[in-house]
Hints:
Layout: E1 2-5, H1 9-17, E2 22-25, H2 27-33, H3 44-57, E3 62-65, H4 73-82, E4 87-91, H5 111-119, E5 127-132, H6 141-153, E6 158-161, H7 169-177, E7 185-187, H8 197-203, E8 207-210, H9 213-232, H10 236-242, H11 246-251
Parallel strand pairs: 1-2, 1-8, 2-3, 3-4, 4-5, 5-6, 6-7, 7-8
Amino acid sequence: MIIVSAGDALTARLIKEAGFDGIWVSGFEVSARLGLQDNGSITMTEMLNATKPIVEATDLPVFVDVDTGYGNFERTVREFEKIGVYALSVEDNMPKKENSLWGGQVPLMSIPEFSDKLKSAKNRKIKVIARTEALIRGYEFNEAVRRAKAYEQAGADILLVHTRDTTGLEATKIPTECRDIKIPLAIVPTKFSHITNNMLVNMGYSYVIWANQTERIKIKAIREGLQSLKKYDCALHIEKKLSATLDDMKGLCS
């Protein structure tokens, strides 16, 4: 499955229109839309409020990034299941987390503690993606694999070994190192965007998650539009060159 991020219902409908398989609701994107850093500062309620219109906008499965689980992961699972979310991604960062795309080595949650968190989500309909930050935080591959195997045993449905290696070599290596793991693998290729979806699927990944591209597209487009409005003192250039039509916008709304 090729999954693309949406920060709102309109973007979710555009993702379906483009023919992708699922929608990712990103903690990074939702934090940014609230003007906050992605460091665990958003609440479960804020994430639920962002997610519900996205779930209702299309029939695509919605995958939600719930950071470290907002404390009581069992309750988090229950609340997101109520609104129809397909899967939750929970990571083994400590609760005072730092965005995975930057920062150095920091301690991760212990394997037993994170495994207990996964086990607390038993008897649920929603799928759980166990995400290890081991490679992100400077641990060796053997530690990432050790965690992956433990999380599978704890009941995870999908495994995400996160990497920000810009060459993509770690991404290539992960399926081989995790060959004994039977649950599906997911990957977030933000830092190695030159590797195609087809290549990643052929490596052995079942889920390819483009986790923040749509919000970054919006930032660039809005910035250019505002610069144009300032430069030309009217919106004619925006209407001719930069924007969708009013009818197009209307057509995407219920």
